[in-house]
């Protein structure tokens, strides 16, 4: 374990990189101006240096490279514009370009500006041509439909004229006009000339349009409408919509003005129309010719636009990545400070100790490639500032580390629960989910994600799928442990199997038909692995499994809580805080094991000896009547004396946790500040204690009352938590029982019930219902439920024994993280 404390290599075993975070160092880099850009670029490719902002007092506009960032932002805007245009045109950007992209940002800026200007011009011309095309289409429809109005009206008028002439020779009737044509034409000044307006109105507004015309002119208009069969593109909005052709006949200028205003209000497009048939035919011919020409021009423009967008798409990803890199480089350069001579940039940042050689190599390479006469200077700074936390993870361990980080990032060099979570998290999940049939289903689903991980990693996934894919190895471990615990419980979709051997029990006689344990005798050796299948289906199944799982939950809980307390010892040893060992670790381990460690021992002894002792009675009367005789509940000689000793140790450990530590810390504080002026300025000892405020004389403030209250809260929390946390582990028993019973209900009340009808249709329906219930309830809801309960057991019951989790993550400047930040 000394190797774990040092976090380094050596010894017989490889170093556990996850147990403690990587050793970090604060470094200073002095870079000549001429090689600054290339140096930061190489450090971004390396991705192992987290820069500190040395210009935090300056606004973004006051920094050195504000103009370059503005230029990059403008190029990013143009690229976003290109992306929108490509999405509208259905053109995908090529991931791998055959042509080499421009690495010079100045050339790229000019090129992007030219492409944007050309694309904007093409779009503007295309919009004008499309609008003109839509107007001509509507004009053609007006000429055709309105021409039909006039031709039908002329035909009707001619028929009426012939009818009137034929009736003039007959008798006068009530339908005979009072004035003949000759009489009417006698005074030309009294003839009324009707005007008309033709156009198209949206069909959904046609009824409102008609009512408004009638009300505005008090009925002094005549409106004809015709439905256009196909939707047409509106010239103004550019959207397809259903329209009606209308012709409004009116008399007088006032009526005309009202009609024009109503047309504008309803979005009705008006077009000129001549009532002479020859001119109508000529207009239709001209419009058709112009439509044909416009169609050819628009097609040529779309082809040119498509070719231009395809050219952009071939290099879009390279351009986009280059602009992102440039912007991130200048953002980082703005975090550096100019020295007095304004010839060098000074930067500070955190890096892992192992990356020192790589960073120095990158600095030398940048100085050589930029032809700089002076190389960059790299030096390590000494500081009391708390470094960031960095764990080297891979695709397997990263998901487990994320589970821990979701609770809180480990403090620098603090013991990391992620190492143990890799095993304990899926195991506790499996204790609640134990069924090797369901475990195989989970395993098959996870293997699909793992086999296709390269393809899925390159795709854009929805939130739930992305979360499931990210935790694929967690689910893999959960599935494997579920198969293991399912074999222990001997449950395959709630059905027991004699996998490892035949049952150790058999019926004594024929009266054993009810399969109760009363009529069973042991005829073979004990079932070698897991629960004997004969327990399933017996009347003693539920009491037996309840007792087994409840005691097992307590054993697992006490073991994991002891592990947490032991890890607090390694933290105290690593950070050299002896007071935490003597006044925290020792009394805590005594208190927990005096009560619940003793209970765990009684459970194991009862299993070994087969005793009928009542453990509830033993634990209750250990507090209420510690001096009474145990009688039948005695499991080993001297148990009464042992209980008195353990009870005394538990009571002593509470003030042991509460009182000494605040006084020891006070004495340590006073000892540090006696003769402080004669102490050396630098100290090699590291301290876990957080830096407290310093007054003007450099003395740390020590509030004894505050420390004492904090210790009292910590003591009360541990004492009460020891009871509540142990009880909390009983959720392992409850969830396991619920899962087993639900699985049994679905099997017996759905599948077996459908089988008993001897009807193929009912059997198929039963199988479908069973599959959907198993997948929906047991493989989805129960999986999520067990996952959340296992999460709570780790975050609350396990990690609160040793884990502070008040650190901050190592966030290096890295080009590999640009896509994630963009997301």
Automatic annotation (TrEMBL):
<dbReference type="GO" id="GO:0046961">
    <property type="term" value="F:proton-transporting ATPase activity, rotational mechanism"/>
</dbReference>
<dbReference type="GO" id="GO:0051117">
    <property type="term" value="F:ATPase binding"/>
</dbReference>
<feature type="transmembrane region" description="Helical">
    <location>
        <begin position="554"/>
        <end position="577"/>
    </location>
</feature>
<comment type="similarity">
    <text>Belongs to the V-ATPase 116 kDa subunit family.</text>
</comment>
<protein>
    <recommendedName>
        <fullName>V-type proton ATPase subunit a</fullName>
    </recommendedName>
</protein>
<feature type="transmembrane region" description="Helical">
    <location>
        <begin position="472"/>
        <end position="489"/>
    </location>
</feature>
<dbReference type="InterPro" id="IPR002490">
    <property type="entry name" value="V-ATPase_116kDa_su"/>
</dbReference>
<keyword id="KW-1133">Transmembrane helix</keyword>
<feature type="coiled-coil region">
    <location>
        <begin position="105"/>
        <end position="132"/>
    </location>
</feature>
<keyword id="KW-0812">Transmembrane</keyword>
<feature type="compositionally biased region" description="Polar residues">
    <location>
        <begin position="676"/>
        <end position="691"/>
    </location>
</feature>
<keyword id="KW-0472">Membrane</keyword>
<keyword id="KW-0406">Ion transport</keyword>
<feature type="transmembrane region" description="Helical">
    <location>
        <begin position="760"/>
        <end position="781"/>
    </location>
</feature>
<dbReference type="InterPro" id="IPR026028">
    <property type="entry name" value="V-type_ATPase_116kDa_su_euka"/>
</dbReference>
<dbReference type="GO" id="GO:0000220">
    <property type="term" value="C:vacuolar proton-transporting V-type ATPase, V0 domain"/>
</dbReference>
<feature type="transmembrane region" description="Helical">
    <location>
        <begin position="427"/>
        <end position="451"/>
    </location>
</feature>
<keyword id="KW-0175">Coiled coil</keyword>
<dbReference type="Pfam" id="PF01496">
    <property type="entry name" value="V_ATPase_I"/>
</dbReference>
<keyword id="KW-0375">Hydrogen ion transport</keyword>
<keyword id="KW-0813">Transport</keyword>
<dbReference type="GO" id="GO:0007035">
    <property type="term" value="P:vacuolar acidification"/>
</dbReference>
<feature type="region of interest" description="Disordered">
    <location>
        <begin position="676"/>
        <end position="697"/>
    </location>
</feature>
<feature type="transmembrane region" description="Helical">
    <location>
        <begin position="641"/>
        <end position="659"/>
    </location>
</feature>
<comment type="function">
    <text>Essential component of the vacuolar proton pump (V-ATPase), a multimeric enzyme that catalyzes the translocation of protons across the membranes. Required for assembly and activity of the V-ATPase.</text>
</comment>
<feature type="transmembrane region" description="Helical">
    <location>
        <begin position="589"/>
        <end position="609"/>
    </location>
</feature>
């Amino acid at each position: 374990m000394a190797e774990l404390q040092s976090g380094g290599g050596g010894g017989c075993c490889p170093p556990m990189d996850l147990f403690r975070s990587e050793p970090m160092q604060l470094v200073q880099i002095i870079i000549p101006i001429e090689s600054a850009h290339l140096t930061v670029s190489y450090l971004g490719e390396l991705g192992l240096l987290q820069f500190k902002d040395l210009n935090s007092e300056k606004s973004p506009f006051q920094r050195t490279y504000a103009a370059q960032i503005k230029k990059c932002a403008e190029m990013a805007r143009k690229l976003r514009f290109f992306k929108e245009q490509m999405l509208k045109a259905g053109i995908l950007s090529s991931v791998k370009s055959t042509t080499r992209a421009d690495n010079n940002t100045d050339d790229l800026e000019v090129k992007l500006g030219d492409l944007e200007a050309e694309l904007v011009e093409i779009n503007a011309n295309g919009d004008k041509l499309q609008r003109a095309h839509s107007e001509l289409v509507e004009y053609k429809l007006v000429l055709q439909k309105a021409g039909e109005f006039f031709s039908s009206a002329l035909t009707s008028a001619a028929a009426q004229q012939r009818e009137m002439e034929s009736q003039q020779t007959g008798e006068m009737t009530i339908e005979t006009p009072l004035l003949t044509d000759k009489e009417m034409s006698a005074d030309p000044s009294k003839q009324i000339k009707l005007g008309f307006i033709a156009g198209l109105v949206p069909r959904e507004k046609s009824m409102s349009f008609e009512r408004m015309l009638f009300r505005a002119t008090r009925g002094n208009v005549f409106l004809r409408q015709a439905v256009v069969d196909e939707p047409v593109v509106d010239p103004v909005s550019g959207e397809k919509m259903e329209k009606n052709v209308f012709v409004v006949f009116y008399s007088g200028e006032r009526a005309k003005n009202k009609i024009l205003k109503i047309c504008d209000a309803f979005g009705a497009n008006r077009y000129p129309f001549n009532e002479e048939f020859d001119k109508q035919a000529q207009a239709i011919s001209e419009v058709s010719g112009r439509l044909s020409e416009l169609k050819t021009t628009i097609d040529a423009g779309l082809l040119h636009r498509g070719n231009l967008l395809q050219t952009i798409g071939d290099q879009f990803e390279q351009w986009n990545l280059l602009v992102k890199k440039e912007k991130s480089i200048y953002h980082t350069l703005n975090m550096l400070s100019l020295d007095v001579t304004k010839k060098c940039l000074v930067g500070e940042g955190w890096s892992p100790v192992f990356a020192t050689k790589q960073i120095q190599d990158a600095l030398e390479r940048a100085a050589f490639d930029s032809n700089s006469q002076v190389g960059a200077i790299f030096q390590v700074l000494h500081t009391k500032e708390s470094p960031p936390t960095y764990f080297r993870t891979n695709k397997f361990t990263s998901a487990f580390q994320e589970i821990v980080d979701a609770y809180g990032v480990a403090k620098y060099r603090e013991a990391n629960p992620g190492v143990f979570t890799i095993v304990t998290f899926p195991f506790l999940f499996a204790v609640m989910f134990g069924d090797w049939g369901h475990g195989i289903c989970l395993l098959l689903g996870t293997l699909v994600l793992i086999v296709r991980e390269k393809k899925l990693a390159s795709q854009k996934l929805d939130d739930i799928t992305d979360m499931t894919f990210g935790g694929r190895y967690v689910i893999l471990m959960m599935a494997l442990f579920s198969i293991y615990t399912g074999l222990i419980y001997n449950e395959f979709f709630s059905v027991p199997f004699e996998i490892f051997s035949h049952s150790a029990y058999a019926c004594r006689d024929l009266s054993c038909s009810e399969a109760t344990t009363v009529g069973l005798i042991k005829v073979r050796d004990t079932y070698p692995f897991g629960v004997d299948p004969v327990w399933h289906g017996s009347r003693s199944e539920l009491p037996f499994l309840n007792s087994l799982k409840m005691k097992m939950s307590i054993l697992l809980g006490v073991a994991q809580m002891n592990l947490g307390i032991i890890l607090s010892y390694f933290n105290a040893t690593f950070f050299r805080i002896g007071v935490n060992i003597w006044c925290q670790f020792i009394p805590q381990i005594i208190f927990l094991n005096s009560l619940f460690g003793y209970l765990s021992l009684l459970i194991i002894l009862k299993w070994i000896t087969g005793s009928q002792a009542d453990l509830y009675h033993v634990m209750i009367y250990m507090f209420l009547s510690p001096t009474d005789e145990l009688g039948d509940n005695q499991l080993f000689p001297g148990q009464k004396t042992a209980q008195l000793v353990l009870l005394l140790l538990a009571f002593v450990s509470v003030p042991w946790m509460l009182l000494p530590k605040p006084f020891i810390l006070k004495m340590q504080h006073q000892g540090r500040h006696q003769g402080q002026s004669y102490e050396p300025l630098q100290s090699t000892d590291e301290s876990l204690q957080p830096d407290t405020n310093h007054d003007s004389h450099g003395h740390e403030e020590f509030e004894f009352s505050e420390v004492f209250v904090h210790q009292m809260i910590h003591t009360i929390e541990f004492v009460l938590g020891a009871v509540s946390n142990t009880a909390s582990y009983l959720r392992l028993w409850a969830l396991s029982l619920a899962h087993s019973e639900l699985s049994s209900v679905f099997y017996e009340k759905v599948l077996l019930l459908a089988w008993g009808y001897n009807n193929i249709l009912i059997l198929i329906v039963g199988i479908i219902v069973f599959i959907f219930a198993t997948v929906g309830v047991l493989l989805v809801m129960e999986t999520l439920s067990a996952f959340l309960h296992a999460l709570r057991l780790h975050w609350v019951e396990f990690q609160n024994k040793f884990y502070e989790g008040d650190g901050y993550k190592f966030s290096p400047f890295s080009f590999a993280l640009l896509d994630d930040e963009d997301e």
